[in-house]
Write a structure and sequence with these properties.
By secondary structure, the protein is α+β, with helices and mostly antiparallel strands. It contains one helix and two strands. Strands 1-2 form a two-stranded parallel ribbon. β1, α1 and β2 form a beta-alpha-beta unit.
Length: 40
Amino acid sequence: METFDITVVGAGLGGFNAAIEAAALGARVALVEGNKVGGT
């Protein structure tokens, strides 16, 4: 089983940017989205 430092739920504008920033800072990030990345 993989482990992550941060789980971001929703890949809209805020969630997507949060996941990218956290990954850039060295965190292992899981991004969970049920539809399309980027929001509506």
